[in-house]
Amino acid sequence: MVVVVSNAQPWSAFLTLRQAHLTSSSFIIRPLTPRFRPLTPRFTTQRLGTLNTRCSINTDILTDITTDQEVRDDVATDDCGCTIPVLHLKSDILETEALNLLAKGTFVDTLLTTLPVLSEEEQNIIAATPAHPAGLYALYASCLAGSMVEQLWNFASPAAIALIHPSLLPVALMGFLAKLAVIGGGPLVGKLMDHFPRVPAYNCLYIVQTAAQLMSVGMIIHGHTLHPTSASSFLFRPWFIVLALVGAVERLSGLALGVAVERDWVVLLAGTNRPVALAQANAVLSRINLLCEIVGAALFGILLSKYELVVCLKIAAGLMMGALPIVVSLTWLTNKLSSGVLDRAVETCLSCSFPSSLKSENIVGVGLEAIKHGWFEYIRQPVLPASIAYVLLYFNVVLAPGGLMTAFLTQQGLNPSIIGGFSGLCAFVGVAATFVSAKMVKHLGILKAGAAGLVFHASLLTTAVAVYWSGCLSQQTPIFFFLALVVLSRLGHMSYDVIGQQILQTGIPASKANLIGTTEVSVASLAESIMLGVAIVVNDVSHFGFLATLSLVSVVGAAYLYCRWLENPTDTQRTLFSFSPHL
């Protein structure tokens, strides 16, 4: 067998095979001229004279390479008299290689046919196993340290201001400014968090929050040393203005940190396609927040009962400074134990475009553009009905533990210990809901578990409002039954709080998690502010039934909207929740 290779132009190269009677099997490499363009012998000789006959050949296959000077007998002569090198091959090696390739192909076929298929039980085990369990535990520890200080300060700040001045106006004004800061600055902070590396941005934001808390402590201690004045003059004191501003910064920072952990970090550490593990992680984070809320309030209350206010504030400041290095170290450890999963990809970091706009444009214009962009992305999210249902629950500021319910129960003449017990029971039911929600996700799936929580919440509140309108709350037994219904309804509310959070985690892209999450928090704060404004207008306790009815309508609307969304799942919804066996 002879292989002939043309030495003409690259586009005219071709192979021809021809039989030759040789003493042994050999491949002969020789130049040919294209048939459509005959060449003269002079031109052929000139071209072949410049041809270098040396080449690199795999010596494992081609074992004997001879030139025209070494073996004259096996040299083929072209028509023009040029000599061509002859390559001798060992046929046994070629046969062995062919058999080896066949054996490898057979092995691959065998490997593909013997791949194991996971059973349903094994798939459930994987779904319940976090992708990065060590990093998740480090995140729990970081949230525990940070939430303990934050919840302690959330209780200590209004209590300390109330001890300085007996009016509720300073606390109400600070709360209102904090909500305005969240509504206006939430999308801007979320956009910044989405466009910078996760770990450095989180640590910087926590440092800002701690600095704001420490400055608030200093302002309150300074205000405590002054003589009390009227509420109107109290609000215009420089130290109170600074306190209100840094309080708004502290609240905005805290909400942004919570969104980063609950909407972004925990998804990466637990795994988006591991619904049970993600539900358990969300439940643990909710338990940490609720327990820190209970322990933080109790701790500062105990300190306040034993020491003076200034001493208690100094102890709180010491806890803040002590928690700062712990949270920063645990945040770094979380990323290290998870093999750097929190490191943001380069293509998602627009550090060249967005930060430069902060330098060249007005900060107000950038903030307005961020708010506009946040609303645009919020409306375009694939799980918008679930998010709207979550926001509608924030309209319920009456049938829940809070200032309005406390004022109503006080007007009804209930013992303060009963009112405190009501708030404590609501908190413990919220902790129980975190255990129930994970089992609901496991047995019903994510979407149906959310519907079950909302329907349960709406049903019990409907019964509670019916008891109120029956007109027998002046008696002790009906009002206890009314409170029991409200307490039990918190089980459905907190279940959807955990499950709805997981739905949003699954449906929102990681590159927009902070932007959409902070925008959602802004919308929820706006909803809560609207209801508080209605309560200010209708401030008589006799209108409590009207406010309770408005709260009930919002909860029923949330359940109806979510169930309608669940009845007609879209293709995007099926794709996002394809891992849910109960969709």
From TrEMBL:
<comment type="function">
    <text>May be involved in iron transport and iron homeostasis.</text>
</comment>
<feature type="transmembrane region" description="Helical">
    <location>
        <begin position="168"/>
        <end position="189"/>
    </location>
</feature>
<feature type="transmembrane region" description="Helical">
    <location>
        <begin position="241"/>
        <end position="261"/>
    </location>
</feature>
<feature type="transmembrane region" description="Helical">
    <location>
        <begin position="282"/>
        <end position="303"/>
    </location>
</feature>
<feature type="transmembrane region" description="Helical">
    <location>
        <begin position="513"/>
        <end position="538"/>
    </location>
</feature>
<feature type="transmembrane region" description="Helical">
    <location>
        <begin position="449"/>
        <end position="469"/>
    </location>
</feature>
<keyword id="KW-0812">Transmembrane</keyword>
<keyword id="KW-0406">Ion transport</keyword>
<dbReference type="GO" id="GO:0005381">
    <property type="term" value="F:iron ion transmembrane transporter activity"/>
</dbReference>
<protein>
    <recommendedName>
        <fullName>Solute carrier family 40 member</fullName>
    </recommendedName>
</protein>
<keyword id="KW-1133">Transmembrane helix</keyword>
<dbReference type="GO" id="GO:0016020">
    <property type="term" value="C:membrane"/>
</dbReference>
<keyword id="KW-0813">Transport</keyword>
<feature type="transmembrane region" description="Helical">
    <location>
        <begin position="201"/>
        <end position="221"/>
    </location>
</feature>
<feature type="transmembrane region" description="Helical">
    <location>
        <begin position="388"/>
        <end position="410"/>
    </location>
</feature>
<comment type="similarity">
    <text>Belongs to the major facilitator superfamily. Phosphate:H(+) symporter (TC 2.A.1.9) family.</text>
</comment>
<comment type="similarity">
    <text>Belongs to the ferroportin (FP) (TC 2.A.100) family. SLC40A subfamily.</text>
</comment>
<feature type="transmembrane region" description="Helical">
    <location>
        <begin position="544"/>
        <end position="563"/>
    </location>
</feature>
<feature type="transmembrane region" description="Helical">
    <location>
        <begin position="416"/>
        <end position="437"/>
    </location>
</feature>
<dbReference type="InterPro" id="IPR009716">
    <property type="entry name" value="Ferroportin-1"/>
</dbReference>
<keyword id="KW-0472">Membrane</keyword>
<dbReference type="InterPro" id="IPR036259">
    <property type="entry name" value="MFS_trans_sf"/>
</dbReference>
<feature type="transmembrane region" description="Helical">
    <location>
        <begin position="315"/>
        <end position="334"/>
    </location>
</feature>
<feature type="transmembrane region" description="Helical">
    <location>
        <begin position="475"/>
        <end position="492"/>
    </location>
</feature>
<dbReference type="Pfam" id="PF06963">
    <property type="entry name" value="FPN1"/>
</dbReference>
